[in-house]
Amino acid sequence: MRRLEVRFSLDPEQEIPVGILAERQRRVYFQYDAAWLARRIELSPFTLPARPGLIAHTDRAFGPLPGLFDDSLPDGWGLLLMDRHLRQVGVEPATVSALDRLAYLGTRTMGALTYHPPTEKDDLTPALLELHDLARHALDVHAGQAAEVLPRLLKAGGSPGGARPKVLVGFNPEKGTILSGEGDLPDGFEHWLVKFAAKTDEGDSGPVEHAYSLMARAAGLDMPETRLFETSEGDRFFGVKRFDRAAGNRRLHLHSFGNLIHADFRVPGCDYADLLKATGILTRNHQDVLRVFRLMAFNVLAHNRDDHAKNFSYLLDLAAETGWALGPAYDLTFADGPGGEHSTTVAGEGKEPTEEHMLRLAEPAGIRARTARAIIGEVRRAVSGWPELADQARVPAAARDRIAARL
């Protein structure tokens, strides 16, 4: 039987046992630690509520793991790196279980949950990075030329999700220095995530996403700090400060909406009505419900249709004891969804949602029609400022005008 201890890593000095995750004959089980149960803290209240005894994962249609632990696994780029590494050491990825992958990540996870004992005790001492070289090597990995650069990319960016190449870095804003950032960082450095362009992207993806972050802020959305990282070769990479980390290498528990309710983000099947309802139940904070409504309006009006169920997340700060809260907005950019429709529908409409569709969701969520219209108006005014924000982010004129024609 494969067994892993799950811990809640508050910071480099505090690790709290959460429970034991086990796999036997391709069935996954979990049992909460008695001391954790005494804390009365729910890490995944909808699908893995805290209770004594052995809990079998029976929702195999969702995936091999409960959503709580699936959020620790990478998607897209991170899985690509992991699978390439496995093949290089002679292991066929299809033979590797979900628990093996969690053990491979160990402490190199997003959020606060870590897995012990890790398969490899890699040296996570931060090393200086050169973003231009890493971006070029990211394309090499996509092309299969990974022999020399894979160890560097694994060290710098083996765990983040999503399809676009990206790395975790430590950034010192005073000195402009960048370090690899999977592990804990020295004083003066902040945890950031930097995205590179995929081969299918145009070279303007970084500036466009940065302009969208400026537009989202203008629309009143809660956004992490963002910036463009520029290199001497003229590259401009989009960077976002990680919101699952706080000062002093403190970790926050992160749970995506899709994994909270066991909705496969790869299969469009959620509606913003579901997101509004889940947010109200989980956070018990009407302000968070209003934030979801504002984010919905932004995605509709700014043509961000890649709004799948893992692009919304919740945070639990155990140290602050503030309870669940809606996480900041992220992965906002101009995007067509599957078949040109929103991944998350608006009152059942995915192709051409309108203000009327958005307003239908207001009353069931406890939002007054006047408030809902005011939010939509504020977002619409911010989106109308796209040309100026695009120029501020130095988006190429062709991309600026192409997007403006669709907004």
Layout of strands and helices, then pairs:
Layout: E1 2-11, E2 14-24, E3 27-32, H1 34-39, E4 55-56, H2 67-70, H3 76-88, H4 98-105, E5 113-116, H5 131-143, H6 150-157, E6 166-172, E7 177-180, E8 190-195, H7 205-218, E9 226-230, E10 236-241, E11 245-246, E12 250-251, E13 253-256, H8 257-260, E14 270-271, H9 272-283, H10 286-301, E15 313-316, E16 324-326, E17 344-345, H11 355-360, H12 369-384, H13 386-392, H14 397-404
Parallel strand pairs: 14-17
Antiparallel strand pairs: 1-2, 1-5, 2-3, 3-4, 6-7, 6-8, 8-10, 9-10, 11-12, 13-15, 15-16
Helix pairs in contact: 3-6, 7-13, 9-10, 10-12, 13-14
What is the number of domains?
A: 3
The count of strands amounts to 17
**H/I helix tally:** 14
| Distance separating the two termini | 54 Å
Overview of this protein structure:
This protein is α+β, with helices and mostly antiparallel strands. It folds into three domains: 2-116, no CATH class; 131-245, no CATH class; 251-404, no CATH class. The chain is 33% helix and 20% strand. The protein is built from 14 helices and 17 strands. It has helices at 34-39, 67-70, 76-88, 98-105, 131-143, 150-157, 205-218, 257-260, 272-283, 286-301, 355-360, 369-384, 386-392, 397-404; strands spanning 2-11, 14-24, 27-32, 55-56, 113-116, 166-172, 177-180, 190-195, 226-230, 236-241, 245-246, 250-251, 253-256, 270-271, 313-316, 324-326, 344-345. The strands form five sheets. Strands 4-3-2-1-5 form a five-stranded antiparallel beta sheet. It has a five-stranded antiparallel beta sheet with strand order 7-6-8-10-9. Strand 15 and strand 16 (324-326) form a beta hairpin. Helix 3 crosses helix 6 (150-157). The chain is globular.
